[in-house]
Structures are given as structure tokens and as C-alpha cells.
Amino acid sequence: MRTALTATFALAAAIAAAPAAHADSPEPVPPRARKLAERGRELHQRGDYARAVTAFKEAYVLAPSPGLLFNIAQSYRLQGSCDDAATMYRRFLAAGPSRDARAIAEGHLATVVRCVQKRTLNLPPDAELASIPVPPAPGPDPLFVDAPAPSPSGSGKVLRGVGLGATLGGAVALGAAAYFGVRAHNASAEVERLYSEGASWKTILPAHQRGERAETAAMWLGIGGGVVAATGVTCILLGRRAEHPSPVTVAPARGGAQVAMSWAF
């Protein structure tokens, strides 16, 4: 659960400083603010949300950034401080984030506001307080260094379902091919036995025909089952890729930022 929660965690975009080529570029981020933000992220990932809030706030004092407001809100939410989390999400939204970042923050804000209301009425909080019930951004948002992890796509689920069905169907076909292969072998052995006993062709013919039919069925079922099973496995892999898109990571660098992408199956 903690791993899934930290997937929504983000450092301030201000840490990934813009190139200094423009005359009106903001002042460089103080090294102390960068260090505090990184320290906050480490504490957040370890589940030490109270100390993470402190580190993010100290970084914000040195280098105000909407991304840091979001980080503080996240830490408050996961700590269970619904009132403080609601305040910080509202401050983040007031900073004018992008559409995708706004959708994420508004989803979390609704969760903590509901939490505040339930506590006012002395009702137990929702189990989803520490969940991530919001639509993900389709790619890295400029407000974040680590973009929120997207949820499984619908097409990925469909592909995996089709792949699973095709793989099972192919396995059944291969099993049937093995069955008919055994029948063809038994028919061939019977033909040889009848020949050795000096039986007439009229007596041997039914066993011979059974063997040919079984051999043909085994061949086609084996080919078809293999193709269908291979297609199913391919669909499962493609569905898995669609459900878990390539993570994009942006890291601060001198004069801008570095972007890295990785693929995994």
C-alpha cells in the first residue's frame, strides 16, 4: 500500500529550474531548498509524514513553489491531518496548476473534505483516505519531478482479458491435439498388429482410416492451438504494457532538467 501511495508523490517543479537563457528567468533554486525538498521526499517515501511536512515547509520558505504545496498536502493527507491537507490542496489549486494536476488535487481535496465532515459528526473516516481515487495525468506534468503513476487503462484490461482467453483456448486445442496424436499412434499400432496376423485389407481398413483422421486432427489442432496460444501471450504482454506505461522521470539538472524513460514487461 505504501508503495502505491508514494507513486502520487511529487517534488516541486521549481526545483527543475528553467534554462537561464531568458532575461526574466527566475532566480536559481538555493541548494539548501533543493536539499530540503529531496529530504522531504525521502521521509515521505519512508512514511515519516510529519517530518516530511517540516522539510517541505522549510524548502517552500526558501523557494516557494506550487509543487511543494502539493507535497505538503500529500503528507498531511497520508498522516491523517485532514484539515491541514484541505488547506494546502486549496492553496495549490489557487496557484493555477495544469488541468491534469488540478484533477488530481481536486480528487484528493474531496477525500479530505469528506474526512473533515465525518470527524465533525464523530463518524469513522473513509478507508479511502490514503488511497488514490483520482484520474491520472497522461504524462509528466511540469509541476512534478516524479509524475503521478497512471492507473490501468481500459484498453490494457481488454487486451489482457482477450489474451487470457486466447491462451486458455490455445492450451485446450493443444491438449486435444495430444489426445488425437495418441489415438493416431494407437491406430497405427493396431494396423501393424493386423498386418502381422495376416488380416485382410478389409479388416485393416477401418483402423487405418481412424489413424488418418486422428493424425489430421492432431496436426490442425496443434497448429491452430499453437498460433492461438502465442497470440494470447502477445495480447497479455501488450495489455500489461498498456496498463503500466513507461515511467517518465524528470530530474533537476544545471540549466534545466533531465528526462528519463524506461520500459518493463
Explain what this protein looks like in three dimensions.
There is one protein chain. The chain is mainly alpha-helical. It has two domains: 2-150, Tetratricopeptide repeat domain (Serine Threonine Protein Phosphatase 5, Tetratricopeptide repeat, Alpha Horseshoe), CATH 1.25.40.10; 154-243. It contains eight helices and two strands. A two-stranded antiparallel ribbon has the order 1-2. A hairpin with a 2-residue loop joins strand 1 and strand 2. The protein is rod-shaped. Residues 1-25, 130-152 and 246-265 have low confidence and may be disordered.
Can you summarize this structure?
This protein is mainly alpha-helical and 265 residues long. Helices cover 64% and strands 5% of the residues.
Layout of SSEs?
Blueprint: H1 2-6, H2 31-46, H3 49-62, H4 66-79, H5 82-94, H6 99-120, H7 154-196, H8 201-243, E1 248-253, E2 256-261
Antiparallel strand pairs: 1-2
Helix pairs in contact: 2-3, 3-4, 4-5, 5-6, 7-8
- CATH names the topology of the largest domain as Serine Threonine Protein Phosphatase 5, Tetratricopeptide repeat
What structural category characterises the helix and strand content?
mainly alpha
Return the CATH architecture of the largest domain.
Alpha Horseshoe
Percent in helix: 55-70%
Highest CATH level, the class of the largest domain: Mainly Alpha
